Each structure stands twice: as structure tokens, then as C-alpha cells.
Amino acid sequence: MDNLVYRELLDNLYDGVYFVDLNRIITFWNRSAERITGYSEDEVLGKGCCDNLLAHVDEIGNSLCKSGCPLLATMKDGRRREVNTYLRHKDGHMLPALVKVSAIRNSKGAIIGGIQSFADNSAVMAIRERAADLEKMTLIDPLTGVGNRRYADMSLQNKLSELKRYGWSFGVLFADLDDFKRVNDTFGHEAGDEVLKIVARTMLNNLRSFDFIFRWGGEEFLIIIANVDELQLRTSAERLRIMVQNAGLRLGSKTIRVTVSIGGTLVKTDDSEKSILNRIDDYMYQCKKAGRNRCLIDNFCCTPTTKIIH
What we know:
Elements: H1 3-11, E1 16-21, E2 26-29, H2 31-37, H3 41-44, H4 70-77, E3 81-88, E4 94-105, E5 111-120, H5 122-135, H6 149-166, E6 170-177, H7 180-187, H8 189-205, E7 212-217, E8 220-226, H9 230-246, E9 249-251, E10 254-256, E11 260-266, H10 273-289, E12 295-297, E13 300-302
Helix pairs in contact: 7-8
């Protein structure tokens, strides 16, 4: 089978696939890699995967490109690896990806490079399909593509009814972008709108298919996390915070980055929509006063682990 046939087979795979040599220089990039990441073959061939192009991070925000790279480890010991990671799309938003790596060997069995395949988290596709259906019902925010405030009100009432009737637990998060006025004042409202889209996509991509996110107003987002306890709710909030701080809008030679302050609560059976909103709004403002870029979930504070350079 000649190289053209191999190329055709790899280009028709659903998963993204790329090859690197021992210096971690990208030598092959298939069509699905272009589709998933937004980067064309011409933009990546000849560049090093260690240049942090995709900004691979784990779920607590640690860079895998700079340390802990599974592809580099596999080229050293020859072992196959499978890792849940997050990568940055060319547009700037973070998305979850299942990464699989293997070594490339020559005819004598010596390792001469590595191959990595990656795929979108399947739950993301379910969320996007649901969003397409809801858009027809005018429940989607036209700018960000997530639920609007009307849909948030409806969903909150439905979740409260389920909690009181069946005991199905859920939490609510209120996320507000930090110093967003600075983005609009410095870079203009068009850039501000793009940042809002990136933040919304990043949070949407890092939720499960049965969780919900809504644009509450301006730079505020409300998120409903289903079937969780307090620890799981804290973990979900902190993951969203970390992924937002790792996202960014490229504008010429600059990258615009923002952070979020998140207030959250595990809803109680005696709660009303008003009591929930009052509580999470208060927690969010406490985060702002404490220095921003943090989460406060029912009086448990998660402090930021990474310094952000604007």
C-alpha cells in the first residue's frame, strides 16, 4: 500500500491524527485535526508540538506541553498512553479531548517518532445538538449560543420542582467575568463580544451533556450542575474557572485573557428561585472583593492556582 493510500485513510478518520519526529516536530496533520482544532496543515507542519500551539492542559490547569507530555514519554519508553486532556482551539476556546499516543518504529524496531490521535468529548456533541434544537424555540442567546435568561428561569423552576418531588440534587453557579469593562475600553466592543463567545464556548465544552449554561446578562453566566454533592459542585466550578483563565482571544500579536469569579450553592428543598439567586450573587461578589478569579461555593473558597498575565 503506497503513501497516498495511507494518507487517504488517515484523512478520512473521525479522530484527529498527527505525527512528530524525535525532536517533536510535526510531520503529518490530518483533516480531522484541522476540523477539531481549527488549525490547517500549512499552519502546523514543521512546527514543534512543544511550542504549546494547542496549549494542552490537564483538568487542574497544568501545562502538558511544557512538562508531563504523554507523547514525549511514549517516545522515550515505547509504551502506549491514553489521557483525558484539554486543548485550545484556534478561535481561543478550550475543549476536552481524549488523547491516545503511540511510538513510531522503523524496520529494526527503533523508535523514530510518535503518533497522537485525539477526539472531541462525545458529551460536547450531545450538548451542541440540544442547542440546535433549542435555538428554534428562541431560548438561545444570539451572541454566545448558550441558553438565554428566559431559558434559565424555566430550567431553574423545573430543577426546583424535581428536587422537591424526587429529591434530585443540583447546584447553581453564577459566573461573572472580572474587569470585563477593561476589555471593551481597551480593545473595543467587537473584541469584547468575541471574548464573551470564547468564555461561553469554553464553559459549554467543559460541562456534561445534562448540565446547562445560560447567559444571564452582560458578562454574567448562570450554570446548573445536575446530580452533584458539595465536593462535586466545587470541582465543577473550579474546573470552569481554570479553563476560562487558560482560554484567550488572539488579536494581532496580543492574546486577550480574562478570568471569572464564581459563586455557587447546592440547592436545598426549602429554596426558592429568589433565595438561590440572592445567595450565589452574594458569593460571587465576595469573590470579587477577595481578589477575583476564584470560586466561593457555600462559603468554601477555592483560591486561584495560576497567576494570570494580561
